[in-house]
Design brief:
With 323 residues, the chain is of the alpha+beta class. It contains six helices and 16 strands. This is P1 family peptidase.
Length: 323
């Protein structure tokens, strides 16, 4: 079988991206046509989300039909309505007798200052991204929800670098598959967990990356408005999980962000991770959560390394090559 090495390796998961290069914003849709058990863990203090209360294990709905990740701050939550329209036309959703209601949890990141702030993900963009959904290759970096993502904003947007969209997967000999996708838009710097190297962060006056800790010690306050960041993502597996177990996997997966983003889960970030279960394989929650954290960390690094610089926000490759 062909190996895609992204989250669509997980059976039942398709991914579609759509972006606007003038507005430097976009959305990423995970299509789950057969439904999937879903959990979520919101760690950042400035989240923008939709339908996350529904994922509480005590609540009724036990399967979702899509996850929508988008830019545009709270405006971008509108993209999920376009995904619902797409699914309704396909007859996919919760059967309520009078038709179907697609369940589409969503999370957004803040990218308004990067391009034209009047352009945001909307229903049309969400519908288009859902229409684009497929298994297999899709570009990383400046695609989908990663289009306007930036990192290293701890010293202000003018010192930031380009973030992006990343995805990775791991396929085990017994058939277990775990994958992750993430849009990296962090206030903090990005560190390679294997080497400790800072590959993207806030730049000083000479254009060189200066550590986030140094900036925090020197600045009386972080020069950002609340909600100016946020890393959002999804981990998925073909193991059989309950909603409660899926939520625990989402919680453990956040360790992947902690290994790669410094600082993370701040007052200025709305970091949110969803967790999906699409299959019937037997595997422990601890195993799935441990692997998910590793794969999510890999996806964060791939997001930044595949990002291309845009005006005002150089890429990791550009900055590190020049120094």
């Amino acid at each position: 079988m062909e190996r895609f090495h992204n989250i669509t390796d997980v059976p039942g998961v398709k991914v579609g991206n759509e972006e606007d290069k003038l507005g430097y914003t976009g959305c990423t849709v995970l299509l789950l046509e057969k439904g999937a058990v879903c959990g979520v863990d919101v760690r950042g203090s400035a989240p923008g989300t939709r339908e996350t209360d529904l994922l509480n294990p005590v609540n009724l709905i036990d399967r979702v039909h899509s996850i929508c990740l988008a830019g545009g701050s709270a405006y971008g939550l509108d993209a999920a309505s376009g995904v619902m329209q797409f699914l309704e036309k396909k007859g996919i959703g919760l059967d309520v007798g009078a038709g179907v209601v697609p369940i589409v949890p969503s999370a957004v990141l803040f990218d308004l200052p990067v391009g034209d702030p009047s352009i945001r993900p909307d229903q049309k963009m969400g519908y288009k991204a859902a229409s684009n959904a497929k298994r297999g290759y899709f570009p990383l970096g400046n695609s989908g929800a990663g289009c306007g993502a930036t990192v290293g904003k701890i010293a202000g947007h003018h010192r930031a670098m380009k973030g992006g969209l990343g995805s990775a997967s791991k396929i085990f000999p017994n058939g277990l598959v775990v994958g992750a996708i993430v849009a990296v838009n962090a206030m903090g710097e990005i560190r390679n967990p294997e080497t400790g190297e800072v590959i993207a962060g806030a730049r000083d006056d000479q254009g060189k990356i200066k550590s986030s800790l140094e900036w925090m010690l020197e600045q009386p306050a972080i020069p950002l408005k609340p909600g100016a960041n946020t890393t959002i993502g999804v981990v998925a597996c073909n193991a059989k999980l309950t909603k409660s177990q899926a939520s625990k996997v989402a919680s453990m997966a956040h360790n992947g962000l902690a290994r790669t983003i410094y600082p993370v889960h701040t007052m200025f970030d709305g970091d949110t991770i969803f967790s999906l279960s699409t299959g019937d394989m037997s595997a422990s929650v601890d195993l799935i959560g441990t692997i998910a954290a590793d794969i999510l960390a890999e996806a964060v690094i791939l997001a930044v390394k595949n990002a291309e610089g845009i005006k005002g926000f150089p890429s990791s490759n550009e900055v590190n090559e020049s120094h």
